[in-house]
Design brief:
4 copies of one chain form a homotetramer. By secondary structure, the first copy, chain A, is of the alpha+beta class. Chain A folds into 3 domains: 32-70, no CATH class; 75-125 and 237-399, 3-hydroxy-3-methylglutaryl-coenzyme A Reductase, Chain A, domain 2 (Alpha-Beta Complex), CATH 3.90.770; 133-222, Hydroxymethylglutaryl-CoA reductase, class I/II, NAD/NADP-binding domain (Alpha-Beta Plaits, 2-Layer Sandwich). Chain A is 40% helix and 23% strand. In chain A, helix 6 crosses helix 7. The longest helix of chain A is centred in the C-terminal third of the chain and has 24 residues, at 365-388. The radius of gyration of chain A is 25 Å and the shape is globular. The two termini of chain A are 26 Å apart. Chains in contact: A-B, A-C, A-D, B-C, B-D, C-D.
Chain lengths: 405, 405, 405, 405
């Protein structure tokens, strides 16, 4: 370990510092100018490109506070990604926003192999998003009385949800007891919204009803006890569903593996086995290669809550050599938090990118999820091909930045 | 479970489909136009905003392939975030690119509480990034002969690294044996680059030397056996370092907790305890609230490899009520993959955003990491405050999108 | 790393070696003698104490093969352990078979503190034991057809179970899909038997029915796909139930903490907090101290399947300082695989030990589980007390073996 | 969920109850009689077999308190288990104490297949056992000053260890910082003892020296912060070593797989792949079948700390079909806590069982560990064979108890 700490200087908190950054949730040229002036004065830097955008500011309401400008993320396209699912059915073009060289090229190669093989089967298996309040009682006796009351009232909760949201439906409640802590996981169907705010507001309404009516009051309660898996990879969500659970598969002929992926099915199978041992050794949740790469780029381009990559980039990848020399491959993603309405989906480029995938607006979230899983499968095939055949380094040397060595 | 599959239609792979998307790693208006025409023909959609950018295309070389345009991400600013570290020392303004309402407001509130408390101590404890090739042998006998040879040659690997990269230094090698599989984790210091490509290229050079010289050849080897924790949360990386390991702490007076965070130290302590039980129940790696939110927004704004949020958003948050009524809080992030050179750091808005934090270019990556950890601490305080005091739902109703219920 | 391998000698497999150990599932003095003679001839050692037992050999049928004799395990008693539960209600004496000095003393001290505090509330929350066959199909299409058929037949499975076992009841079925792999987790109530064999036999009957009747056959199927958590700690079982799920709590006055446990509630609280951070850092499943110690000793004494400690010794321990200076403590064990009939419960000393706890035979497994959880709580309190107050080392010096330093 | 709680009765703590069980760490017929009388009076039960033992009571000192008698565990033998290792080299007979029918038969079958194949290569790769004290400071500044001091004193700790124990050697120290918590993991070599008490006493001596001498005192410190993985499966220990790390491998010809294991290499390979997906889905640490079965039975028979099965039964099993139709199989166990001196190794039957393996006393712990890993490999092969070929249910019906359905 290195020396830890250089001596910290004494400092004062000046009142003007403490309150100076002009906070505002209003979005206007005036506010931007005010913020810019302040920042330039403080940092001696200017932000001409960040602030130079002709975006319609009124579209940004509810998406951001202290708005200063627009970050520009390079965006490429791959495809067609041929998908056969329950909602996705066709050849899709997928926008990927990233600054990592070789990423778009790699996913495109995977998509091309799958296209030549006739397309990916991709199926949304389940939907559900949770909010998990926790109630703390004096002791187990009180907790058990509360539960008895709750179980009797359970059916009436549906009405509360109905009166709170047009879209949300309460689909399941799960109870966890840990001493005098009671966690109730409320699971919802939230139509085509990713739904995190919706389930917060509905669960809040349920909890307020419960606290108001219950005969035994908890000593404390919190709307989320940090067990729902929000913004983090968890074994619990991995074993259940969070957002949408999708599985996708393909069979690639020996010829496609050789001609498009430049490796062999046997080498792919060998690499998969070996790397599965590696990922087990690393103590990951699930076993996959690089779901995060494709999902992050797709989420940025299409107005998703990108931080949900933390949970979405979890799952299982499997590859198998078939006796006829072909390769079977599949991915399973149980935590795809995605939406085609709400969040950032209505922002200008985000909407165009959703449109490119034929996924903008209501009725499209399952289709989006099935395409996302197919994308992920294409990416797993391409990276495994590169690693199995020793092309990985060269691909990064070819497409990546040359100056950084 | 719902019905799984609607019958998939029979389909043909038309040759023109299969090769039609005009792939190119060249970035030019000609290529963009070609791609756009193709996409419009195929999807019947247009992308006027996505493609309408006056970005200097030559800057994008090595960052993207099949480039079509620029995704626009709303960006807000928080601060000043006062940080005392080994490299960070001062009041910083932090750009956050997101479309999630309430996020910027929440981090700003946390930063303000910390500012009034005199600032966050944030210390980079360790650095290191790994590439972990795997070698498969006939049996343990061969493997042990290989290791004996390797251990004798270990010192000469430093020269190979030196001849491959100006920046990279080999700092550690760890051996894992699992039957006839040998994994060697090479750990590097990569200066101010996040370094993933650098360590790939250096490790490739090492491996080629090893394969060429070793007396007992492995039957297979792969440059990465998927044990390095690349693009995923792993228990292994959580217990070691991947990128930079930073810990940050603050002590907030009872007055600040009450006046800025609108709760009490006792409630914060209570919430932390309860939610730590929750996150343990969920089977997370580590125990934290929402590191992913702040890190993702920061990474998008500042040209980081955003997919690394998968691993970076891991760590431990702790809060404690002190006997004088103040609140101690700390975060520890062992897997901060960040850089201030290379990757997307040189892109136009990304560079401005790094400049805003005084973090653009060489010599700034430790400072950047210490600011990032301080940001995360501000965010943990703010969300825990909201959840402890029942403000969480209201905050999202106030700042979030109104139309989605 | 040390030198790995000394050269292995060449060797021959002599036919007499290969078949020489006289295997037998018959238990008789003749077989014992035959085995002993063989072993003495081969090893030049004698086993007079191991083989000198007047146990009724006929009792051992179905419990062991290649029987040679009786291992003698020292057994101590703690108590009374006062328990208030749904089935346990009274003061119990608990036998612990171990050779680890200080273990019995430590659990006894914890039990004494709990007794003085009025006893432990211990509640069995859920029961269920699983067998999880896996079915592999050509592709997702076939798999989905199989599931459709299965869901329609689901109700008829209860009859199969009824016809296979007098005791087992099928209580739940859960489906997991991973590409073309379908896992069905069948969960059973198995009365007072731990039930692992019962659920194997019932699930085998179900599977044979399914394979016989289903319109789409899987290409392979296995009665257990290693997902049921049998003989291992898993995040899945930790979040569900395996065997019995029990939670137990106590409130200890400041006086008891001080006089019996020789520490203070504040120190206990402090130790719990700190050690919970430690166990999170270690990447455990759940968060507890040493459940394995008490459970193993109890399981050995009472004829349980001791290997199930691997899964049973998982859960969450929590301790909290109350405002009145008392200490709240609880444990939650979701994977208590225990039985009071079958297995080794009928063996001579095992039966006496079950009798000591008033837990021998039918109708006692919930009581047993509630006592087991209370035992575990007593042990967590005692070790945390020792560690919080710096007595841990001394306790081991006092009670442990003196010669080993 | 079922009704949770029947009303608990009011109760009094009678003084005589609270102190009545006559606690004693002295082992004598007098104490046994006293305890028996008390228990019989309280429970109305008698324990004639438990208490009827002619064991030399003086041998039990330091192994047990409140001793009442001897638990009798049926013990079978398997073998010869042919092992080629660094210390084990020969054909061993392995005692297994269990009451689970079919267990001994299954391990014996696996051993027989391995014997016919020429024996198992089993190699102890590393040794080390940890004690991990935690030090809590006011803040990071104090913590960093403490570390600076510690790093300068590090070398002098070896002398403290030398003066505390004849056997222990300090081999490594690892530092973990989490906010103001500092954990130092001291790793030792403890010769042929499993060493948990030894490392406690040595670390206690180190800590007392540190607390006495350090210029900045911690506000609290604890000899174990629950991060060492003692008595629990942890990702940390799985990735490092705890006790002994051993890997073992075998290659079985197609003929042996078919004739002894009654299955085929292809089916074994298929089962391994499929079940590895299953165990990943279950969220286990590592990926194995039933290490706990063999290890528990071996540990009980040979005087080990059986509760360490919680950590020892962790690792990775791998099986692969070779192109010549043979099967490669290996196991890796990083957390084998075993000893051949100290603990229960000197007890009468335990010593005979160690003798049977030629493992009693000094100089034998590595041999023991290599045999244990070989045993585990035999067990993994046998259960995978049974499951792959559909024999699993029948084996349990044949050898298991018939009455329990």
């Amino acid at each position: 370990m290195k020396t830890l700490l250089k001596k910290t200087e004494a400092y004062d908190v000046h009142t003007e510092d403490a309150c100076a950054l002009p906070f505002s949730s209003e979005i206007s040229q005036t506010e931007i100018a005010k913020l810019c002036d302040y920042l330039t004065k403080k940092t001696n830097k200017q932000f001409p490109i960040l602030t130079d955008s002709n975006i319609n500011l009124s579209l940004l309401n509810g998406n951001i506070e202290n708005f200063i400008g627009i970050s520009q993320i390079p965006t490429g396209v791959i495809g067609p990604l041929k998908v056969h699912g329950t909602a996705a059915n066709g050849a899709y073009y997928v926008p990927l926003a990233t600054s990592e060289g070789a990423l778009v090229a790699s996913y495109h190669r995977g998509a091309r192999a799958c296209l030549l093989a006739g397309g990916i089967t991709s199926i949304c298996l389940k939907e559900g998003i949770q909010r998990s309040p926790v109630f703390k009682f004096e002791n187990l006796n009180d907790l058990s009385l509360f539960i008895s009351w709750f179980l009797a009232k359970k059916e009436s909760l549906h009405d509360i949800v109905k009166n709170t949201s047009r879209f949300a439906k309460l689909t399941d409640t799960k109870i966890q007891i840990e001493g005098n802590h009671l966690t109730i996981s409320f699971e919802y169907f939230t139509a085509d919204a990713s739904g995190q705010n919706m389930v917060t507001i509905c669960t809040d309404a349920i909890c307020r009803f419960m606290i108001d009516q219950c005969p035994v009051k908890p000593s404390h309660w919190f709307i989320e006890g940090n067990s729902s898996g929000d913004k983090k990879a968890t074994a619990y969500s991995f074993n259940n569903v969070r957002g949408k659970k999708v599985t996708a598969e393909i069979e690639l002929s020996a010829k496609i593996v050789s001609e498009v992926l430049k490796t062999s099915s046997a080498l792919m199978d060998r690499y998969w086995r070996t790397s599965t041992m590696g990922v087990i050794q690393s103590g990951a949740i699930g076993a996959q290669g690089h779901y995060a790469n494709g999902l992050t780029a797709l989420f940025i381009a299409t107005g998703q809550d990108v931080a949900c990559v933390a949970e979405a980039a979890t799952g299982i990848t499997r590859m198998e050599l078939n006796s006829n020399g072909s390769l079977y491959a599949c991915v399973t993603l149980p935590n795809l938090i995605v939406g085609t309405v709400g969040g950032g989906t209505n922002l200008p480029t985000q909407r165009e990118c959703l449109d490119m995938m034929d996924c903008y607006g209501e009725g499209n979230s399952i289709k989006y999820a099935e395409i996302a899983a197919a994308l992920v499968l294409a990416g797993e095939l391409s990276i495994a091909a590169a690693l199995s055949a020793g092309q990985f380094t060269q691909a990064h040397q070819k497409f990546g930045r040359k100056k950084s060595l």
